[in-house]
Amino acid sequence: MGVDASVADLARRMAAVVGPRNCFSADADLLTYECDGVTHGRTRPALVVLPASTEEVVELVRLARAAGRPIVPRGSGTGLSGGARPIPGSVVVGLARMRRILEVNLEDAWVRVQPGVINLDVTRAVSAAGLYYAPDPSSQSICSIGGNVAENAGGAHCLKYGFTANHVLGARVVLDDGKVADLGGPALDVPGHDLLSVLVGSEGMLGIVTEVTLRLLRKPEATRTFFATFPSTDEAGEAVSRIIAAGILPAAIEMMDRLAIVAAKAATGLDWPDVGAALLMDADGPLAEVEHVSERALGIARQAGALELRVPRSEAERLLMWKGRKSAFAAVGRISPNYLVEDGVIPRSEIAPVLREIDGMAKDHGLRVANVFHAGDGNLHPLVLYDARESGQEHRAEHLGGEILRMCVRYGGSITGEHGVGSDKAAYMRDMFCEDDLETMQWVRAAFDPECRFNPGKVFPTPLPCGERPGRGEPHPAEKAGLAERW
Amino acid sequence: MEPRPGTDADAVQGQVPRLVYEPATVDEAAEVLTRCAREQHAVAFVGGGTELGLGPPPSALDAVLRTSRLDRLVEHAPADQIVTVEAGMTLAALQRLLAPHHQWLALDPPWPERATVGGIVAANSFGARRARYGSVRDLVIGVSMIRADGTRAKGGGKVVKNVAGFDLPRLLVGSLGTLGLVATATFRLHPRPEAAATVLVPGVAPARAWDLARSWRERQLEPTSAAALAVSDRLDVGVRFEGFAPGVAQQVERLLDVARGLGCGAERLDDAAAASFWERHDAVRTGGPLRAKVSAPPSRLGEVSRSVLAPLLGELSPASAAWYPSLGLGFVAGRPASPAGVARAVEEARRALAPQGGSLVLCDAPAEVRASVDPWGPPPAAFALMEEVKQRLDPDRRLNPGRFVGGL
């Protein structure tokens, strides 16, 4: 059977479910879907379908299963770990059309939304009532709630408020057999195993989430922000440690090193000085608490060797400071033709030695690394700068990125704090986890998706192609289906 | 690791195990589970025994593994605000270790002198501070588990921010030992607040208590705990603020103002009165012989009080109830007048809660009550998936069999 014929047949059936305009297989139409926020390693899927309802998703899953094809769920495609990167022969189920806010309960402070709803639109929908949705990944104006759930997205303010996992109350998920499962719910502590917690952060590998119930928070009364510059990341790191040791829990505390500051300035025109490091801190909460905390933090920053302390005089100025921070990734494009974003985590007390080590490793590789990161929780975002036109640089950059992640693990940290493992970091999972750890995770996966229908090839390192043992010792279904080589 | 014979003191809901293991190290615990696997023994894990009343009696029980000797500190990194401990350490012992560093694990379930870290994870135990700090799932960042086959496996890590791999730590929270033994757990810590104050709003009608909670949220107050204690058909609402002194003082004033605005009397309690309010709260949380946990949307407090709490309280004597108004969770405790009557009240309460997504779980109950009503209530919507997870992790159904939801 020719692949094209089988794809054409499947496309016809799927088009009957979602409408011909929402199902495409022509090369030109598939281009957008070849990658997510990680643009290397582009791969063309067989088919892209855009369902509009849970019922349509159920039908699509049944059809894909009957055709023996893997499914790659996709939100806005902003992910930074290649989590939505298709595999050859797969059906990409894009959830961008499912962007309705289904129910708003202001009294109990939750919303029920479809997965394609944009993160920031949740807050927009409830802000008149003084509520907001806390997780704030830098891409929040374009990333989707479904993608946030898949990756357990974080953001600058998760130091105080937690990650997506701390804010999802319930989810509806379509499983491989076409059944629909409702996990959790608006009332707390539903009896039974907490499968919702496994679903969040499962990187699209357990099923397709078609509804999510999110907890909303009351906006804090006051926010105080300051920007502090330091001679080097040593003093800045020391300031962070002392602020935390003083019993202060900032809403966010972000650090940028010299190169990142240069890039942010180039992109935004901010009048930041040329210094070795800068901190941007938010304290929020009830007014008196916040004023007390920010005064203390400013004092600590001064004692730790701050060169200059700036307190924004207006909300506009405050937002501008944050714009500088949030645009730092893209800003790096101003000072380098290409860059890789890493997402390692280290114990925050190790910031200074780790940054020195990164600096040394960058020199060894003949490359530059700009560091922008969530200092409060030790989540580093080293941006490895390179020029793809120079032969060998891209390869060296990838090698350096990998070495940085391994170093994070050596310091007792993680290979990913918020971007996910996806296809990009799977190779480093063994640096953190042994085979038994991974096997246990695979068992959990197999309970949801015994045939590895959803997003195969992500998170788990090869050579265990899909690792789990559906029938304990039986050949993998993918092998039986003759699909193994594609994965 | 040789077992000793079980005694009455080792019983799980009246069933005495043949064998009792008391491993002193995580390696020994793994050996025990390997041996149980080889001999196909059903095994229950017991920490401080504070939550053994949860669920039905075991459907099989060959061995008990006690975690009491697994009580070591593995790592405390004060600067990183994380701690890793073995499962058998009690919460009070852990808090004593952390206190000199002005830190704590922000969990305050009942019986801290007995409740162990592993048991708290397995039973998803919590106290009033959940209002601010969340529950176990919000604070656990890593576990090392021992599987049914005796293999050690870990999930998560020791940094607060980490999304590598599937979330095994949270999966184990509340799993009551049905998926594996929690051998060590790693938690995020918080600084101990330097100041605290409790405001009492006494004698509030239940629906009014919700108005009060909604109003303090509206006024952007952030209490660390709030509990409403039942006094006949009224509630005494205690609201605790903790943090830096200026913040606490300002929030207290504002809450007094909020209460006055709703026509409620309110006062800031002195230290002794505050301690006695929270002791009254603790008494409900440790009350019995029947103790039920109720979950419902917070805004439904008036209705829940009428159709769930009042009928249950009517079947108990003495009777007490504590409700966490901002969470929509609460506990009812007391001595059943008649097992049949209380069983009926439980069933009726469940019928009233179901349409709102709420639930009622018996945390403890006399055997006669347990015999006539399922302690967990009807299996949840995703039960088939839970069975699948159980099947993958414990295919022989030897880990705490029969004690969990739906007989898992």
What topology emerges from the helices and strands here?
The complex is a heterodimer of chains A (487) and B (408).
Chain A (H helix, E strand, L loop, with lengths): L2 H16 L4 E2 L2 H4 L16 E3 L4 H13 L4 E4 L16 E4 L6 E5 L4 E4 L5 H8 L4 E2 L12 H7 L6 H4 L6 E7 L5 E5 L10 H5 L8 E8 L1 E2 L3 E9 L2 H13 L6 E6 H11 L8 E9 L1 H17 L4 E3 L4 H12 L1 H4 L6 E4 L9 H15 L2 E7 L4 E8 L6 H18 L18 H4 L2 H14 L28 H4 L7
Parallel strand pairs in A: 2-4, 3-4
Antiparallel strand pairs in A: 1-2, 5-6, 6-10, 7-11, 8-9, 8-10, 12-14, 12-15, 13-14, 13-17, 16-18, 17-18
Helix pairs in contact in A: 1-3, 8-10, 8-13, 13-14
Chain B lengths: L3 E2 L13 E3 L4 H13 L4 E4 L16 E4 L6 E5 L4 E5 L4 H8 L4 E2 L12 H7 L6 H4 L2 H4 E7 L5 E5 L11 H5 L8 E8 L1 E2 L3 E10 L1 H13 L6 E7 L2 E10 L1 H17 L5 E2 L2 H15 L4 E6 L5 H14 L1 E9 L4 E8 L2 H15 L5 E6 L2 H6 L10 H11 L15
Parallel strand pairs in B: 2-4, 3-4
Antiparallel strand pairs in B: 1-2, 5-6, 6-10, 7-11, 8-9, 8-10, 12-14, 12-15, 13-14, 13-17, 16-18, 16-19, 17-18
Helix pairs in contact in B: 7-10, 10-11
